[in-house]
Amino acid sequence: MDDINIRVQGKAGRITLARPKALNALTYQMCLDIEAALDAWRDDAAVAHVVIDAEGDKAFCAGGDIAELYEKGRAGNFDYCRKFWADEYRLNAKIFSYPKPVVSFMQGYTMGGGVGVGCHGTHRIVGESSKIAMPECGIGLIPDVGGSLMLALAPGRTGEYLGTTGYRMNAPDAVFAGFADLQIPQDQWGELIAALENGADTDLLTEAAITAQTAPLEAMQVQISQFFAGERLDDILSVLRQSRSTFAEDSLKQLSRKSPLSLAATVEAIHRLRGPSLTIAKALDLEYRFTSRAMEQGDLLEGIRATIIDKDHAPNWQYSDQRVPPIAVSKMLMPLGKNALKLEENGMRQTKVGFIGLGNMGAPMAANLARAGMQVVGFDTAETRAEGVTNAETAAKAATDADIVITMLPNGAILRSVADEVIPAMKPGALLLDCSTVDVESARAVAEIAETKGLSFVDAPVSGGIGGAAAGTLTFMAGGSEAGFAIAKPLFDIMGQKAVHCGEAGAGQAAKICNNMILGATMIATCEAFALADKLGLDRARMFDVVSTSSGYSWSMNAYCPAPGIGPQSPADNDYTPGFAAELMLKDLGLSQQAAQSVDADTPMGALAQTLYQTFVEEEDGRGKDFSAILPRFEKRGRD
Ligand code: NAD
Question: Which of 157, 245, 265, 499 is the most buried (most CB within 10 A)?
Fold first, then answer.
């Protein structure tokens, strides 16, 4: 929790945003940490109030960490982004309706995600340096994190003005527009926080507040009402265009930088929300309709690209002529049906997971579960750690009380010994989920022991490698009962993008080793074909061009080409640093031959592949290299 400092100090639950170099931009993990703290303090009689502040003088919080979202969105992982927003919005609603006073001290910039943390409490404090804004339309979003509620409630047409232009409010403006409650000189904040920690009542904040001077926004009310009262964006733009006033020119300049689709949807959303039935839940629900579509159908990826990735500030918006058809807005704000925002308690939060084996694969998988809000207790003999995961002293301790125990271990023998230790410690009805690649016999043996002890067992080896484990895009091939698979499914959805229920216990391992036997054989075939092509004088790029679209194509050729500089990026382009190590391929080929032997299956290609990888790893220089590094081996050899 380096980015945030959460503790109880005297009578105050204290939250300090601690990323001053990044203007305290809110990461997913920070949202989850704040929510967990609020949950813990709700019924804790020792905590009288919550005080939120931030390090540095430039910003309380300049927004959400959109670089992280951009990466996920570019990789097509829209579900990750939707989940981030859903979890963030749940936090915003929690702050809004928290049963204890929530005090926030907002110096410098408070924008976007920062508004969601700082502007929903009971005592929202601003000072001389405060600059509060909702600039989301500039990146292709609409004002969110519950900000649309304040915009809909702001005097006159102030909401439309703030939400579309992204105007930066100073302290009196923020109080006027309803984004803050009290202006207090910043040199008094330290003392006030100390007093709150010592148990002082929050009334002392009201006593310390100064009467704000007239807000510039208040002085602009006539113009704001004149220009921003239109029913739609079109109406607002046409009135602004008819005027030569500086206010109109400045406003048009601001609007010209924003996504037209976002602007039109912002105006529509504020109008729909304004009225006596407005609640934070309604505001967040409507915002979420837009944000959950913003990457795929809106301008969000383009907006982030132009603003913080390429920084060319020349976004290629949809509807760049600012004529947004009403149907386009309706489509972005349509109800989401079963995918609608759910603000009730996250069911996942209740799930306790024990995670044994925090290696290259296990650590990022466990971190993804923790990030999704699960309580994850880990154990690894090498004492490795994973982000958001608490380590236990033994595997049995990590398994005690867990609803699901996941193992991600090197081989079947280790799985069996770990299972012997954890099964007696697991609570009745819990699930043992083995994601390691092991022999079918070990999987079935552990399943039998688990089931006799009243536990469920699912074997669910993965494909997708370390990259897939980190990105949450693994494929799981699962064996075990329907009921066990159903319990594991929500975890598969977090750690991966696909899970196939292959049959009874051991079927997952069977699918995995069959797949990898094909992979080993096709990689060898691809590499020997490249070596032959070289000797025949055939250019590698031409060879790729032909084979990748002819009957010789395969994943090894098309997606993971072993020849450096050919095809999409692969370990060959990184000096064969492993994505999937040759030793792991050898292990999987060994498992397939062991299985073939046990059921009397004829697998000559698999057997030969195993022999070649064994020579490569044990006698040549294959150890520690990617399994595609077998190409240079073929290049060096002749027929004997
Ligand atoms: P790894 O060696 O990085 O991780 C295994 C971890 O298990 C290590 O940290 C080790 O200390 C720990 N461990 C060993 N014995 C233990 C015990 N008794 N108790 C607790 N922890 C113990 O391996 P990895 O790459 O994470 O692979 C894990 C599994 O996933 C393997 O079965 C592998 O075949 C499979 N797999 C790996 C990849 C990949 O690309 N790395 C891809 C698919 C599947």
Answer: 265
